[in-house]
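Researcher: Let's walk through a ligand-bound prediction step by step. First, I give you the protein sequence. Second, the SMILES string for flavin mononucleotide. Third, you return the three-dimensional complex as structure tokens. Ready?
Model: Ready.
Researcher: Here are steps one and two:
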Amino acid sequence: MMKPLNIGGLKLDLPIIQGGMGVGVSLSRLAAAVANEGGAGIISAVGIGMTEPGFRNHFRESNKIALQKEIRKARFLTDGVIGINIMLAVSDFEELLDIALQEKVDMVIIGAGLFLKKPENYDSKNTKLIPKVSSPRAARIIFRHWSERYGQIPDAVVVEGPLCGGHVGFREHELKQPDKMLPVLLQQTIKEMIPFEQKYGRKIPVIAGGGIYDGKDMYEIMKLGASAVKIGTRFVTTVECDAAEEFKQNYIDAGPEDITIIHSPVGLPGRVISNDFVKEIQEGTQKPVNCPWKCLKTCDYNKVQFCIAEALFNAAKGEFEHGFSFAGSNAWKAEKITTVREAIEQIKAEYFHQEIKAGERVGSKIKEQTI
Ligand SMILES: Cc1cc2nc3c(=O)[nH]c(=O)nc-3n(C[C@H](O)[C@H](O)[C@H](O)COP(=O)(O)O)c2cc1C
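Model: Step three, the predicted complex:
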């Protein structure tokens, strides 16, 4: 039986957190649909203002307006759990985090860097702060720093393995290393959390992400001690996903051989579905970069080969001549577009099947010792 997730009193009946997907792939519609099924729906904040008029001249203001709008839209569509995802690497990180805290979103997941600075207006009763890491060491550094500096720790942690979609927190040669695989990282991260759990007298949920696609994947990682899973790729091919139909179809048409790695101006490898644009950048072609706003702290826009924000936003609109889809290693498994409810029902049925196989269930009854 899937055990509900409890993050310091914030409860999820379905221990699934939908991965925030930029640019414009997970907005209010997808997030609300997942939240309505009992999971957590996550709006991706990165480049969210690109749909606003005048964005090129007012990028910071547009991002703030669009983020607030999407959070409020999601709240209108669901009473469930809604969060946002922000990358530390974006130049307006603090401003976006501030909007999220003001709007009292249920959770904020912070990736692409070490989340060391506790926001002044953070109140765990309103919003759970959850760093996303790719190594147990990074989790330890963040939690130790918070504990020593603030006498407080973040509410939970996401550990993401190398099969994930989007930016991957590993060097390219590490992507297939056995010691970097999610089950290993998960178990090490759980161990790292023990001293903090003892010190603060509460459970620190460790949430596993990267390459979790079906109920079997979910069952196996939950059995290793994950308190919940974070799933991105699987939710792209849903009716409610906020990207254009062409973006979803790109997943359905892809085979395993089409999923490849590029070097992103963020300074990390990125996993994408190959196309002519991707082949050109992999061959070293310089693309036109016209950057009036510098959305990434790490991006030297006079030197980069292409603009990642534009490439992702174009793809989300279905314009693949000037962009590409981020995608997880399992994106090729998509066969058709389903509703979020259908995807989740299938995951639950597969999970249930694994329990029967493992002898934890007899028919529809859970054996007492597993409860
Ligand atoms: C299309 C796409 C876009 C993504 N964009 C972001 C993003 O903007 N910020 C972020 O922190 N993670 C991003 N991710 C990562 C997801 O939030 C999630 O952690 C990841 O998808 C989990 O792995 P999975 O895709 O194998 O399920 C993205 C993933 C995908 C597939």
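Researcher: And what stands out?
Model: The longest strand covers residues 81-87. The two ends are 8 Å apart (CA to CA).
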